[in-house]
Amino acid sequence: MKKLITILGIDEEICVFFRNEILKIFGDLFEVDYRNRDMEPLPPITASDLILYTDPEMHNEFISIIKCNAPTLMMKRTITREALRKIKSIPPGKSALVVNINQYMANETTALIYQLGVSDVTLYPYWEGKPTYPDVDYIINVDPRKYSFLPPINAEVIIIGHRVFDISSIIDILSILRVEKERSEEIIKNYMFKVPSFLHGLQSTYDNKSVMAAQLNILLDQLSNGVIVTDAADMIEFANSKSVEILGIPMDKLLNHSIYSLFSGNEKIDAILNNKELKDELIKYNGNDLVLSMKSVERENNYYGKIIMINPYYEMINTQQKIHKKIIGKGYYSKYDFSDLITNDPVLIRTKEICKQIASSDSTVLLLGESGTGKELFAGSIHNNSNRKTQPFVAINCATLPENLLESELFGYEEGAFTGAKKGGKIGLFELANKGTIFLDEIGDLPLNLQGRLLRALEEKEIMRVGGDSIISVDVRVIAATNRDLLKLVEEGKFRHDLFFRLNVFQITIPPLRKRYEDIKVITEHYLKKWNKMRHIYNDFQIFCNNYKWPGNVRELKNVLNYMTTISKSYLAFDNLPDYLRVRDYYVNGKHTGEELVLKLIYYGNKIGINTGRRTLHTLFNKIYYEISEMEIRKLIDKLSEDEKIEKNIGRDGNSITSTGIDFLLNNNYIREEMDYEFEDKVKNAVKVF
Ligand SMILES: Nc1ncnc2c1ncn2[C@@H]1O[C@H](COP(=O)(O)OP(=O)(O)OP(=O)(O)O)[C@@H](O)[C@H]1O
């Protein structure tokens, strides 16, 4: 229903004039009624939203018929720009009578003309019945038809018409009758063009305010946060376009609606809104997680409304992630793809194929395998081949942190959750991994308490931060890995059986490296090529590889290769293995006794012309290979001699290699055609020392 304005005027004509003015200015916003002296009988005012009167006399006169408690407002009035232009055309130094119906109105009009900046014309107020008047050059009259009581002066008459509403009255009316902001602004803007305001500051203040408001609107619309501003009655006065997008509510359903009605039915938000100030509260709105901050605007104990900021929870997380990436230079992602997974092993090839197939499903994967077998490589490749590949891949080793730290690392915590908790709380890995994959390595080491929380996260797809009470939805694919026998842990009561079954949807077992010796060669070649460190691989290195159990699996192999390629630019052989691996048991087996290593020493010794007697060989062997007794060296020398690979020379030069011996070394890849100067130097240095 339209709001009703009632005008109290001196006569029918002035009432009709103002009624038309109101209809002209406010369009169809209001109904207009009036009362005046001409009315007989004078009906009481029983209902109205606003009562306007032209001067205090009117108000006093009609007070007895006001039978409702509508607000009353005296119209501040002014003249039109056109009328002011006419008055300003009076030459300076001249004088004029300002005519109006009574003394109050005449004085008021005169004061108004002065206030509007007319300073060089002398004005005299004049009204009906005023006994004296000066001789003037001009008569400024409101209405020639009505005010026929002009004094008999031969002066030029300027008609200025009835005074119209001053802009301040328009603003008052709009505000009292709570006209919606945009409409109000439009009305004010249009009206300002038509009338000059006697309140000098108002126009410029309003202009400044409009410019500032426009700038503010642009600024707020640029923000990535939703911003809502309410007035003292908690009605939404302003909402930026981001808030429309976040809440999914059109602008016209936001503006001029109570902030409470917007969130009605949500007790938590109600409680939040009743606070004076709140920061980063997590709320659920239409199934979405939003972070809401709010501040009441108060000055000198007056309440002016609220400023509310809203943000989609996951947009905040993404921003955090981006910043995190920038700060630490890497994001939560995996660099792995199935093409990084090198194998010739039929079992592993098959496993790789299965993983490629299950990658695109969202199901949980349980990877079983010893440390360094490539569980993370599998997990990362699965993620990067899934629909989640553009989302985070977050890996954590459940065995490396104490329980409470692991808990807050996984699920995050709220500010003040415990002593030392960071201000603003901390986001957990589950939240960071939202829409992506979390890789829980060493899941068998997850404490029981956290197993329960993990199960809930998997089943409900919801988590709660440590010390928090809000539920946060998470959409995370879990890939878990362990080297431990989970079933045994279940039997021992150390692993929840329900969690085991929840994780054990796709079980993938990766065999250790010692069960796929063939892979050592291809993986070695792969990394040498990848690192651009091509080396000649001697047979004694391969013998070692096949003897050694590789407890650290591929990780250890990579480390060993890294070491060996650093210390030798030309070859990989038993002699340039790290110290901890140059051990007799890692070389000697039924087939290999170490005689080829002695033979290689003799070959190089002969080349560089050093003594290759038993003693020297013993020392060299101990330095370059592993610990061995002189007795054993003697046995090996005897065997080599028996096989005619060497000739035992009694005397200063020691033993010399035969062509059979050289062929043996060449054919079995213990030496190659070109010399290995690094090995030669090694032998030279070893001899020098003693
Ligand atoms: N088949 C493979 N081909 C090439 N590189 C591999 C292979 N398997 C593992 N690797 C490499 O070995 C290293 C260890 O692998 P990864 O970290 O995936 O092992 P893991 O089983 O997760 O180990 P842990 O359980 O100790 O965390 C990585 O650098 C990985 O790239």
UniProtKB/TrEMBL annotation:
Keyword DNA-binding set for record: yes
InterPro entries, sorted: AAA+_ATPase, AAA_lid_NorR, P-loop_NTPase, PAS, PAS-like_dom_sf, Sigma_54_int, Sigma_54_int_dom_ATP-bd_1, Sigma_54_int_dom_ATP-bd_2
Stretches that traverse the bilayer: none
Any one GO biological process: regulation of DNA-templated transcription
Keyword annotations of the record: ATP-binding, DNA-binding, Nucleotide-binding, Transcription, Transcription regulation
Record-annotated Sigma-54 factor interaction domain positions: 341-566
Molecular function per GO: ATP binding; DNA binding
Occurrences of domain PAS (ranges): 212-263
Keyword rRNA-binding carried by entry: no
Top-level taxon of the source organism: Bacteria
Protein name as catalogued: Transcriptional regulator containing PAS, AAA-type ATPase, and DNA-binding Fis domains
Organism: Lutispora thermophila DSM 19022
